[in-house]
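== Sequence entry ==
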Amino acid sequence: MTSAPGRRPAARPAWAYLDDKLAVIAMIEVTDRTLAAHPFLHGISPDHLAALAGAASDVTFPAGHRFFEDGGHATCFWLVQSGYVTVDVDVPGQGRVPIDTIGIGELMGWSWLFPPFIWAFGAVAASPVETFEFDARTVRVWCASDPALGYEVTRRVAEVLTKRLKSTRSRLITASMRPVGTR
């Protein structure tokens, strides 16, 4: 097994306050086997799954929990196990405008991988959401020290970005076909 630099994040209590809202942190140990079941990580090597498990926590968030804001520092990313998250953008004069929904089996957050590690959007739980939450800095260090892991993670994030760009393009084309007053 590839040894991962650094150490596992400190153990958390069964609950913790995040951004003035209660987040329930399940006492389920995140292992390579539990991560292997998530669609984003299907097919990744057992050594890489074991390394990623060392940076992961199983965390549940209540509906309405704001994960991040456009312009904030990207310190975590999540793999959604259940529930839905609304991705939004702050539009001057209109406030937060929903632009996408992320659900079961999907990656939430990609800004953690690319300098300057600043969120490009915002995200809020549309329902209770159970996730694998990863410490982004730890994963970046491990990716830098293990090029094969770095390639796998970057390739998978690029696939997510490609899918979301195609979806956005489709929505923009559909919106542009509507009469001007209905957009």
Summary: The chain has one domain: 15-182.
